Amino acid sequence: MAACDRLGLIAWEEIPIVNAITESEAFTQNSKEMLREMIRQHYNHPSVLMWGYMNEVLLQMKFKDDPDRQKQYVENVAGLARELEDVVREEDPNRTTVMAFHGNFDLYHEAGLTKIPMVLGWNLYYGWYSADFLGLGRFLDEPRKILPDKLIIISEYGAGSDTRLHAIEPKRFDFTEQWQQKYLQSYLRQMQELEFVVGGTVWNLVDFNFWNIRSGISDSTSEEVSTQPVQIYSNAKEVELRVNGRSLGSKTVQQNEANFEVPFSDGMNRLEAVANVQGQSLYDVQKIDFRLQPKKLSNSGFKEINVNVGAHHFFVDHELNQVWVPEKAYEKGSWGYIGGCIVSKHGMVTEQEATKISLEVLRIPFIRRSGTVYKLFVLMLLMEHMS
What is the Cα–Cα distance from 233 to 146, expressed in whole angstroms? Predict the structure, then answer.
């Protein structure tokens, strides 16, 4: 908490009543005691904005086979919530109270829980657990309409990522940093547009990284660069990008973002973003180690290639200092897959089930692995003199 005070970070602190409660006097008294101790311990920290006491408390609903008993359970949850709300108001009448709910408005509203805290937090993952980013705004329409005087925050949002995985064209649930980036951009822009949403807290662990080891295939047989997109985030009106001392020009910053197509060369690339703000030049520099793969493997510059079989994304192995590139269709003199079909996680072919794959007299067996979907393919490494 002291670090939050020093850094100017706003904190929401809560006790661990999550998913369900125990209907007992001991549980109630322990919950009250935890809440009092938390508030008294951290009362004098200016970074604390809200006190919370329940999080997704109806997520694991009890007594599903006994409607009457379940109704009584929900009433007891709401009763405990009211008691804990009173504790906060008594201990600290100058701060706000908050509860976080999972994405089921009717459940919490019918239980009476949406009327108890001063701030309603919604844990929403549209674009991660479900496909559509814009489901966020559609979901919030109902609580906004029914509870117009309640403050609303997005108490959890986020997408999982692995700092080793990167994609030019990311997909939902691929765990690339680029899908996470796309997800966060969408949520931030929506929250800015939805004026009744007063804040948001991203759900994250240690997924902070910069893609500073890259690889790619040269744009053509005659060019020794691979062009890939780079995003620059800024609150300036315009930003210029310089790559290895050469300017790629300036772009207008739209919604805090400027996009450039960068021609990466083999080896270390120096990227410098420059902006002019109130007559002062500001800049940021990143160095990217790029492993250029030639268009034709017969080129003298070819050393090795690591292919991330069946995947559309790059894999960066920091321990071995390697980059595995996505698979691609075969091109003469180069490499890639020829034909193929999709195999389910259970090993059953989902497209053209009876299809068998062959290359001349070579028969290719199906690739199977539990829990994983693979594209079956033949990887061709054909040097020019062989093709």
Answer: 37
Compute mean pLDDT per 10 residues along the chain, 387 residues long, and list them: 95 97 98 98 98 98 96 98 98 98 97 98 96 94 96 96 95 94 95 94 82 93 92 95 97 95 97 94 96 83 84 94 92 79 52 32 32 41 38
Task: Supply 225's token pair.
Answer: 């660069």
Radius of gyration of the chain (CA): 27
Residues with Cβ within 8 Å of residue 246, at least 6 apart in sequence = none
pTM confidence score: 0.85
Largest CA distance in the chain: 83
Chain-centre distance of CA 356, in angstroms?
38
Domain ranges of the chain: 2-202, 210-293
Q: Which CATH homologous superfamily contains domain 210-293?
A: Immunoglobulins (2.60.40.10)
**Residue 49 one-letter amino acid:** L
d(CA 256, CA 235): 5
Count the alpha carbons within 13 Å of 80 in the hemisphere toward its beta carbon: 26
Fill in the amino acid letter for 9.
L
